[in-house]
Amino acid sequence: MKKILVSACFLGQKVRYDGQHSLLQHPQIQKWQQEGRIVPFCPEIAGGLAIPRLPSEITSRHPVMVVNIQGDDVTPEFLHGAELAVEKAKETGACCALLKSRSPSCGNRETYNGEFNNTLTPCNGVTAAELLRHGIPVFNEREIDHLIEFITMQETPEDPNSNNPHSG
Ligand code: SF4
Question: What domain of life does the UniProt record list for this protein's source (predicted)?
Answer without folding.
Answer: Bacteria
